[in-house]
Amino acid sequence: MYHTDILLSRGSIFVPTILLGVAITVLDGVDPGFAFRLAGLLDVLTCFLLTLIGTAPINATVLTWQPSEPPKNWRMLVGRWKQFDRARTWMAVTAFALFLTAMALKLAAH
């Protein structure tokens, strides 16, 4: 149950972030930070897709494993999960930096 809750909570983080990113990008219109907001939003969307096609399927597979008898390819799967997770982490950091840059440009313009 605990692991399922963690998997479900990922959507509760991404969906509001994506919706707010779209709303802010559209409502603020084209200003000095627009390109950075748009790039940040695309970054968050890509991060979400990496979760859907990368880490989430691996997590679902891991939940079926017997702790006393992991599959023979468990190290390979863990390695793939780490690669996806590193990519998602760097994308999230990059998106944050892009959103901060967009805000700084907007504030500097006023």
Could you give a short description of this structure?
With 110 residues, the protein is an all-alpha fold.
Shape label: elongated
What is the oligomeric state here? single chain
Strand content: under 5%
Helix percent reads over 70%
How widely separated are the two ends?
A: 50 Å
The secondary-structure class comes to: mainly alpha
- Please compute the radius of gyration using only Cα atoms: 18 Å
Counted by DSSP, the helix tally is 3
What about the largest sheet?
A: none
Order of helices and strands: HHH
Number of DSSP strand runs: 0
pLDDT averaged residue by residue: 86
The residue ranges in which pLDDT falls below 50 over 5 or more consecutive positions are: none
List descriptors.
about 110 residues; about 0% strand; mainly alpha; single chain; elongated
Q: Mind explaining what this structure looks like?
A:
The chain is elongated. Helix 1 packs antiparallel against helix 2 (34-62) and helix 2 packs antiparallel against helix 3 (74-109). It starts with a helix and ends with a helix. The protein is 84% helix and 0% strand. The chain has 110 residues and is an all-alpha fold. The chain has helices at residues 2-28, 34-62, 74-109.
